[in-house]
Amino acid sequence: MAFWLCPGLTVWWLARHGVALTGFRHRNVEVDLGGTPALLRSPRRQTYCFDRVVWSETEILESLKGCVGGAPQVLNERLHSFTPGESLADRRLRGNAVPEERIHAWLAAFFAELAAVRVEKLPRRPEDWPSDGDSRGFLMAQVRYAQQETAPAVLRDYGPLLRGLAFPDDALQRFADRVPPLTSRPFILLHGDLHAGNIIVPADGGTPTLIDWELAMVGDPLHDLAMHLERFGYRNEVERRRVRAIWRRAVRGVAPKAVKGLEADLRWYVGFQRVRSVYVDVVRTCEASDLLGEAVVRERLAEIVGRALPWIGVRAVLTDAQVRTALSEWRRSRRRVLVRG
User: Fold this and answer.
1) Which one of 29, 105, 233, 329 is CB 3.0 to 4.6 Å from 40, fit for a cystine?
2) Which is nearest to 193 in space by CA: 207, 212, 209, 208?
3) In CATH, what is the architecture of 7-340?
4) Which helix (H) or strand (E) segment is 101 a member of?
5) Which pLDDT tens digit goes with each residue over 264-316?
6) Which residue ranges make up each domain of the chain?
C-alpha cells in the first residue's frame, strides 16, 4: 500500500481522481491505492449541529478491531479500508433491491455483534455521560443536545416556517415533559447512523458492510433500534414489526437484559426521532427544494411535521394550503433579511 507518499499531495490527488459517494457530514471518495480499495473521508462544513460526535472515528474503529466483522480499518487519519460496492440506498433508487431475507440476516448478525462488544474496550466516555442503565437519562441527554446545539440555529433560520406549521419553539421541552420513567437497560455500543445509505452491498455479492461510524456511542440499545426504524425507509408497520422481532432475538441471545421494556419504551425513542427529525429534515427538504419541486416539498414538510406533532401534544392536521402559506411567508421574510443584509 502506497502510504510512503507525501500525505498532503496524496490526499489531493486521490480526491481529484476517486469516485465521489454520498454523505451528509463527510465527502466520501472511493479511491484505489495501487489495487487496494479505500475510502477517503473529508469533513463537510456543517451549518447546523444535528448530531453529537462523542469520539473520533479513528478512535472507535481502532477499538472495534476483531469485534465487528466488516467494520472499516483505519489506514491513516482520513483513509479507511473499503469494500467496493454500492450503498443499499442507491440500489433501491435503481430498482435493484437486495432480497429482504439477506438484509434481515445481516441485520441480525450486526445487532448481535454490537451487543456483544465489551463497553470497557471502547474509548472513554465524556464526563457528563449518563450512568450505565440510566435509560431515561440517556434519552434526556439526546434531547438536551438537540435543545442546546440543534434547535437554536435551526429556529434562527427556519423558526417562522416551523411556527407556521404548528411546530412551537419549545417542542423538545414539551416532548421531554411527556416522557415517563423508563426501564433500566445495560448500555451497549451503538452505531448511531444505521440507515440504507451507510450499508454497502459488495459488488461480488458478499456480506454487506457498514460505514460511517462517526456517530458511534455507548447508550440505551433502543436508541439505535428507533433510529434505524425511522430512517431505513420501511414501507409499513408490518415491516417494522418484523425488524423489531429480529432485533429482539439477536440482542436477547447476547445480552438478555438489553431487551427489557422494549414494547413500552421503544415508542419514546421513536417519538424523539420524529421530533428531532423536524429540525433536520425540514432544513434538508428546503435546501433541496429546487431539485424536489414545490409539490414534493410541501408534501414532505406536512409529513415530517405531522409525524412529530402528537409527540409534543399538538392536535393539528396540516393542510396543503397551510403548508403553502407558511412556505410563502417564510420565503418573504428571508428575502427581507437578505435585502437588509
Assistant:
1) 29
2) 212
3) Alpha-Beta Complex (3.90)
4) helix 100-116
5) 999 999 999 999 999 999 999 999 999 999 999 999 999 999 999 999 999 99
6) 7-340
